[in-house]
Write a structure and sequence with these properties.
The complex is a heterodimer of chains A (about 110) and B (about 290). With about 110 residues, chain A is mainly alpha-helical. Helix content of chain A is about 45%, strand content about 0%. In chain A, helix 4 crosses helix 5. In chain B, a hairpin with a 4-residue loop joins strand 1 and strand 2. The longest helix of chain B has 30 residues. Chain B is globular, with a radius of gyration of 20 Å. Chain B contains 11 helices and 7 strands. Helix content of chain B is about 45%, strand content about 5%. Chain B has about 290 residues and is mostly helical. Chain B has 2 domains: about 180 residues, Cytochrome c-like domain (Cytochrome Bc1 Complex, Chain D, domain 2, Orthogonal Bundle); about 80 residues, Cytochrome Bc1 Complex, Chain D, domain 2 (Orthogonal Bundle), CATH 1.10.760.10. The N and C termini of chain B lie far apart (about 45 Å). In chain B, the strands form 3 sheets. In chain B, strands 6-5-7 form a 3-stranded mixed beta sheet. Classes of the chains: A mainly alpha (about 110), B mainly alpha (about 290).
Chain lengths: ~110, ~290
């Protein structure tokens, strides 16, 4: 438990408030990630329910890289997934994915 | 069934050599097993998800599974925005061509109550014919230019013909004496299940896999019955439009290549969806968000 807690804290170090806001914007905006189309995310309006609630991801994924992989191309974990391959199909940029990962990692 | 489709087609020559009675039994089964099995599985899937729905309920699209939205839909249907389209369509349908002939002369039963028989297989040309295609073929036979799907006159004609067919069961036939018909059906089916576009969705990703779920605030409808309510007045369009226009909109949403209305791809897709929807009553013209 303690290590998990420490790890998730460690992940937060160096992530500015500004960057988290930028990541959130990418998750919410329809012409960016539009993650709300399928996921409930804290204070996101009219979310869909195709995917699971996005919360406490730092406990669900062992590290940020795995979380990034889920966003980059979800089909590598589940070939039948409904989740679009955001990185592989260049729906959003690599840099935007990184910002997204930092934001998601901060969610409780 | 001890022969699968591949084997049975490969043995076509041999089958001819078999005793007649055996061939008679084998042939229709071998050719029809697939679409009918598909249809059974397609319906069964939705039936499991929505056990309270009867087959005819699927005519109502998403409103069959969204009780709240259904109320406002029914309120709109009390003063239907497509009513003028039916009137205009009737007038157009009854206007003679320059040579004195009418659309009615091109259709069985003078064109009344026939929309549920489309799309059809045309063995002569080896292609699927939609009702819009049949209207255009009629026009050309009488020296009139064909109309595009977006032409409101075409939409009005379709609205009128659908209106005269309301309540009649969709009746799409894959003739057993033409393997090209089955091939067209198979292409339509493949299109439906093929993932495509930047978002990597198939039609089935939304309308089968995630049916009944919400994508943002939109509830996803079953594809069963998808061909029955057209043309449709969409509040979003602010006018009445065709099924093929709706196909394009779904493809646009997933940033996939769109095809022209009445293209072979869309006609085959409509053939597949129509066959899946057999027995469901025509409700067109209809209204949707």
């Amino acid at each position: 438990m303690i290590t998990i807690f420490l790890l998730s804290c460690a992940g937060m170090i160096g992530v500015s408030e500004q960057r988290l806001i930028a990541g959130k914007k990418i998750a919410f905006e329809r012409d960016k990630g539009n993650c709300l189309a399928c996921h409930v995310i804290a204070d996101g309006e009219s979310p869909g329910n195709i995917g699971p609630v996005l919360s406490a991801l730092s406990k669900r994924f062992n590290n940020k890289q795995l979380l990034r992989g889920q966003i980059w191309d979800a089909t590598q974990f589940n070939p039948n997934t409904s989740m679009p391959p955001f990185g592989k199909n260049k729906i959003i940029s690599e840099d935007e994915i990184d910002q997204l990962v930092d934001y998601l990692w901060s969610l409780e | 069934m001890w022969l699968n489709k591949k084997q049975s087609q490969g043995q076509r020559g041999k089958v001819k050599g078999l005793i007649l009675s055996l061939a008679l039994h084998l042939w229709p089964c071998a050719l029809f097993a697939d679409p009918l099995q598909d249809q059974f599985a397609f319906r069964d899937y939705y039936q499991q998800k929505f056990p309270h729905l009867k087959l005819e309920d699927y005519a109502n699209g998403v409103y069959a599974i969204d009780a709240v939205a259904k109320q406002s839909w029914l309120a709109i249907e009390e003063f239907p925005p497509y009513e003028p389209a039916i009137e205009q369509g009737k007038a157009l349908f009854e206007t003679a061509f320059k040579n004195g002939s009418h659309y009615a002369d091109c259709f069985p039963n003078q064109g009344i109550g026939i929309a549920n028989d489309y799309p059809q297989w045309d063995s002569l040309h080896g292609e699927v014919v939609t009702l819009a295609g049949a209207l255009n073929a009629c026009r050309m036979r009488h020296q009139q230019k064909p109309m595009i799907d977006r032409d409101q006159d075409m939409v009005y004609l379709l609205a009128y013909l659908a209106f005269t067919s309301r309540g009649k069961a969709i009746h799409v036939v894959i003739p057993d004496d033409d393997p090209l018909a089955l091939a067209a059906y198979e292409k339509g089916k493949a299109f439906y299940y093929q993932r495509r576009g930047q978002l990597n969705f198939a039609c089935a990703t939304c309308h089968v896999q995630n049916v009944g779920k919400r994508i943002r605030s939109e509830l996803l409808s079953p594809s069963l019955g998808h061909t029955g309510g057209w043309p449709t007045y969409r509040l979003k369009w602010g006018e009445i439009g065709t099924l093929h226009r709706r196909f394009s909109e779904c493809l646009e949403q997933i940033k996939a290549q769109e095809f022209p209305a009445q293209s072979v791809d869309y006609r085959n897709l409509e053939y597949f969806l129509g066959f899946m929807s057999n027995g469901i009553p025509i409700t067109g013209p209809s209204t949707r968000k």
